[in-house]
Design goal:
This protein is α+β, with helices and mostly antiparallel strands. Helices cover about 25% and strands about 35% of the residues.
């Protein structure tokens, strides 16, 4: 009957709408490339606190688009403390990473992993993390890119 067909059609549209809502919420983050994070320049600035000149990042349009948004980044895990509790995600494996002088600070993202998602990771483990991208050009004690609320994707 016509009523049954209309009911089935309405049900299908409702299910499709529900699927797209769940999909959008689940996969809301955008995977960004390291090329996006490489869009920056530096300017020298005197930091009174440290009594030295420091290179401050000036972020280009590409990273600014994603600031404060949920993103996903893939790279290599590198512990940055002796206990293995703080990590960065690097564009390159440890042997070619920022610390070894073969790349710049734009090739690493500091991971702020909430306690409930915390676990130990192996060096150079290739992974994707999602979280909220923070651009940092004010705190010299942290990396220029930070992934707040970082967790495995």
């Amino acid at each position: 009957s016509t009523n049954q067909i209309q009911s089935m059609t309405a049900l299908r549209y409702s299910l499709l709408a529900l699927f797209f809502t769940i999909s959008t919420a689940t996969f809301a983050q955008t995977k960004i490339s390291w090329d996006v994070l490489a869009d920056l320049t530096y300017e020298n600035k005197w930091l009174e606190k440290y009594q030295m000149e420091y290179q401050i990042p000036v972020f280009g349009k590409s990273p600014k688009i994603y600031e404060g948004k949920e993103v996903a980044v893939s790279g290599y895990i590198i512990p940055i403390d002796a206990e293995g509790t703080q990590f960065i995600l690097s564009r390159y494996p440890y042997a070619a990473c920022f610390f070894c002088g073969n790349a710049g600070p734009e090739s690493v993202v500091e991971l702020w992993i909430p306690q409930k998602y915390y676990k130990r990771y192996e060096i150079d483990q290739r992974m994707t993390f999602k979280g909220t991208l923070k651009l940092n050009n004010t705190d010299a004690n942290h990396f220029i890119y930070i992934l707040e609320g970082a967790r495995e994707r």
